[in-house]
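INFO worker-7 received task bundle
INFO bundle size: 2
INFO processing item 0
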Amino acid sequence: MRDRGGRSWRAALHVRRLGVVDVADVARWTFGMRGLADRFARTPRCLAEAVGGMKGGSRFGPGSLIIAGGLLILPVMALARLPFVWWMEWGYAAAVSGVAYLMNVLDKKRARAGQWRIAEATLHLLELAGGWPGALLAQRWCRHKCSKVSYQIVFWLIVAAYELLAFDFLRDWAWARGIAEMMQTLPEPRRLSRGRLKAERGRDSNAASSHRSRQSHSR
């Protein structure tokens, strides 16, 4: 497509944002610009961001660096306290983050080319294995999965779990020990062996039969 200035653009447009459409329908819109001009644009924000992504722009900026750095503070401190060989710890963290980054970039390229996509479960599994920093970098750099709410919910739940685990580890598992102690104070459920259960059932049946016999004698 071309804008009023004659520049050529590639854009991704979500059909569901247009409502009911049919073949040969004509869609008209105004290009949205990031910043103040975006307030006056009639285009859905996904189109404006998609156009920016096709131009080679990204969401990776100073804000993304601050967020990524802040999220890495607790995990890095916890990783430094693990009783393993340091190069194995940092090597694993770097490797799994690198694989998660490459898989997200590959999935973005396949999406643009209309090819078979990488399953979201695979991407989440890499994030759960510790590759969420690389996945976050790929999301901000390539504008990948940023607008999919369901995906972002699972992603940030994984990040939150890592932050909570790292924080509790640095506090010598204070929260985990507290939960374990609370679980021990709860009353245990009544458990009956098979033999005892049969005996109680037989006792109940005998009591019911004796009750019926007394009723029959009284009549």
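INFO item 0 finished
INFO processing item 1
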Amino acid sequence: MNSTLSPWNELPARLLRSVGVYRHGIASLRQVDDQALRQYTDWLSRGMHAGMDYLERYPDIRRDPRMLLDGATTVISCAFPYFTPISRTHGTANIALYALGTDYHEVVRNRLEQAAEAIRDTFGGQTRVCVDTAPLRERYWALHSGLGFIGTNNHLIIPGAGSYFFLGEILTTAPFRPTPPLPVTDCGRCGHVPPEPSPRAARSMPANVSPTSPSSTGAISPRAPTCMDAFTDATVALRCARTMPTRRTPTSPNSCPDPNCSPSHPPTSLPWMPQHSPAHSGTQP
């Protein structure tokens, strides 16, 4: 009887759940594909990054994240929920939900460092934790790891859970079995999203979403001008009651034919986010 050892390690989900990860995906590291590189380069050349020059830096690392950790073979994409139901009191500041708690860069990094240490102790090798500040294409690798799909708002949408998530990654030299990407979805074109005031929303592609829209950096940075067309495009995915549980009402549409959009319940926020309080007011960033 012949037996062959698998070249892959199996990552226990409980290891990541113990530090607060809601869902994760695994991808084998390689160079970013040519089409994604062209889209990103074109996005920059059109000035869609709203003057955030750091998005132009380290193009070689953005192309090949293996340069972030010598010998890295695997990226583990992790999602941490931040949705918090809060009252919107008249006269109070309307602050984006993700900004209400402790700086997520610190919290997510600390939690992922705990998971990375456990991975090194169990499987050996080296690790590096990335949380937003490294030149890593977070949504690209989350998409290729099967964590979710990209909506018309250019956010990663986790089926049945929505997009109220912080993303963080663990790069490791230990080989883990990849999780398959989700089937391609056509977000916003299923016919079950409430009509939008602009016909451009129906033609929107994620590459057209700019941080200059009030739904993104424009809402938190006074440097960025506003663009209502981009805002209209971005809201299509946010209004989908199938993939965004926080948008559901007894009469909201819930019959999207896409098998990726299975209904669920919005995940609860982690301890660093504030509890429900009429003293706070928030909106979808």
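INFO item 1 finished
INFO post-check item 1: The radius of gyration is 19 Å.
INFO post-check item 1: The longest helix spans residues 104-123.
INFO worker-7 idle
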